[in-house]
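User: Fold this; tokens only.

Assistant: Input:
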Amino acid sequence: MFVTDSPSPSSLLGQPCDHRALLTLPAREAHVPAARHFAADLLATWSVPSSERDSAVLIIDELAANAAQYGRERMTLLLVLDHGTLHIVVSDSGMAVERPRPDIAPDEHGRGTGIVQYLAQSTEIHQTRSGCEVRACLRCSA
């Protein structure tokens, strides 16, 4: 596991930001709770209000679960809080193509993306050279 947190590093676009943290874990479902708890604790430290923190943690939970399911080696969670916007970036070392899992009933699968799109102000999915990257932005009154 690799974690960094620095008060004023470069943001996603290379400009100064309020807060930034990075967590890298093996792409395994057993590590999704660690990503969720890391984010909840960190956002509380950053004084993100509880209702917005709850939405962010739910987004992170869904994106980390997808990264763990489809990633091959590792998943990375990047959180950037900048001028009232929380940028959530989850990347993995897998492909963007969703593969159905026969062990999960259809009515219990596939809702995560809809939840993320509902809670976030914007979402983007990018295929990178090393895998898939999903970005979600959430307004925060912190």
